[in-house]
Amino acid sequence: MIARVDMYTPPHFAVTDRARLLHLIAAHPLASLVQSTKDGLSANVIPLYWVDDGSELGVLRGHVARKNPLRQETDSAILALFQAGDGYVSPSFYPSKARDPRVVPTWNYALVQIKGTLRAMDDVDEVRAIVSHMTAQHEAGRDRLWHLDEAPADFIQKMLAAIVGIEIKIEQISGKFKLSQNQSAENQAGIAAQLAAPWAVAR
User: Fold this and answer.
1) Cα-based angle 120, 33, 127 (whole degrees, multiple of 5)
2) Rounded-to-integer distance, Cα 20 and Cα 42, Å
């Protein structure tokens, strides 16, 4: 039974459209994984991808080093956080400030939170399939695609033996897209223009 961990989300920032949530995961696959272990909280940063395995919400898959303690916590509750770009919003971004100075700074971001149960995948064919899928996914769009079979077979086998696959059965998925939806159309346009300016810090 997974522990309840809620993300504070005012209704106007909540996103429940699963297609939008999965799109963010695909576009920003590097997840922060937080796990409660017998020794306390543990955190890892690992790229993951979503798989429709026929269950209600699907699963996330990826791989970690065989020596990573994460793999030893089989059947444990885990929290995965996927975050897109973010940016500081200055009160000066609001055109309405010229008429009403009652504004304060804030921060905009888009985040998907997944809660589920972790299991390790030690079968070499499963691990190879995970690595092959992730490689194909992230090589897509490059002028020259790299494939696993470009490296010597014995080297790949050695590398695969040093990792294990992980799978997170999704039990809850939620999204918080804090993108100034609570502001007027005028202020939203001002914020978008400022964040898109050449001098804005890319995140």
Assistant:
1) 30
2) 28
We report the CATH number of the domain holding residue 46 as 2.30.110.10
Q: Give the tens place of pLDDT for each residue, 125-173.
A: 999 999 999 999 999 989 999 999 999 999 999 999 999 999 999 999 9
Q: Is residue 6 part of a domain?
A: no
Report the number of distinct structural domains present in the chain: 1
H helices present in 52-200, as ranges: 124-139, 153-161, 185-195
Contact call for residues 35 and 73 (beta carbons, < 8 A): yes
Q: Is residue 98 part of a domain?
A: no
Q: What are phi and psi of 107, to 5 degrees?
A: -135, 130
DSSP 30-63: EEEEEEEETTEEEEEEEE-EEE--SSSS-EEEEE
State the pTM of this model: 0.89
Residue 97 included in any domain: no
Structural domain that includes position 132: 11-91+105-184
- Residue (of 115, 1, 111, 134) closest to 61 by Cα position: 134
Is the distance from CB of 128 to CB of 161 less than 8 angstroms? no
